[in-house]
């Protein structure tokens, strides 16, 4: 394991933990942006420049910013200090430790995992486009539809007004 990967992995895990543990929703969303950027830099470290660009554009540039906008548009003044963390933290910690242990065991006991890694030149942008538009076209369309529905839902949530308040004019 290289030092660069260790730094990026530590950054990503700490930012993801911050996204789950921070009390203010906006701070948690910004910590999520940090975790997504850590994943993007890990892709860059592996030599996958296109996937890095997609990660930054789609997740950091669109989804995370959409989350911040929804939080800004839907949160009332009294809700800002509300914790997003689940109260029974021991259950979440147990699940996280179980998943982490399974991943570590898979990496340690998997025979010669580096042999399965493709060479840099094997993954061409043209080939990726062909695979996405032929073999995975249904999944690609489903993801696009899901993101569109999420955006429409965010707008509808932001436009909803409580019945007790008259509309501002």
Q: Can you say what the CATH homologous superfamily is?
A: NADH-ubiquinone/plastoquinone oxidoreductase chain 6, subunit NuoJ
Q: In angstroms, what is the radius of gyration?
A: 20 Å
Q: Kindly report the CATH topology.
A: Four Helix Bundle (Hemerythrin (Met), subunit A)
- Write down the CATH class: Mainly Alpha
Contiguous runs where pLDDT drops below 50 for at least 5 residues: none
Question: What's the average pLDDT?
Answer: 75
Dominant shape? globular
Strand content: under 5%
Structural class: mainly alpha
Keywords:
single chain, 169 residues, mainly alpha, globular
Task: Give structural notes.
The chain is globular. It has a single domain, classed as Up-down Bundle (Four Helix Bundle (Hemerythrin (Met), subunit A)). The protein has helices at 3-21, 25-45, 49-74, 89-109, 125-134, 137-159. The mean pLDDT is 75. The chain is 71% helix and 0% strand. It has 6 helices and no strands. It starts with a helix and ends in a 10-residue tail after the last helix.
């Amino acid at each position: 394991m290289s030092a660069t990967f260790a730094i990026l992995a530590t950054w990503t895990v700490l930012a993801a933990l911050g996204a789950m543990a921070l009390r203010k929703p906006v701070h948690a969303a910004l910590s999520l942006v940090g975790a997504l950027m850590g994943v993007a830099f890990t892709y860059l470290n592996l030599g996958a420049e296109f996937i890095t660009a997609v990660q930054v554009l789609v997740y950091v540039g669109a989804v995370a910013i959409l989350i911040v906008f929804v939080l800004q548009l839907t949160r009332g003044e009294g809700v800002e200090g509300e914790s997003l963390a689940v109260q029974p933290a021991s259950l979440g910690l147990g699940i996280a430790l179980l998943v982490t242990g399974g991943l570590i065991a898979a990496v340690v006991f998997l025979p010669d995992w580096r042999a399965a890694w493709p060479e840099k030149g094997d993954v061409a942008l043209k080939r990726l486009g062909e695979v996405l538009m032929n073999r995975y076209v249904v999944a690609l369309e489903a993801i696009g539809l899901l993101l569109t529905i999420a955006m429409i839902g965010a707008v509808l949530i932001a436009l909803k007004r409580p019945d007790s308040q008259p509309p501002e004019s």
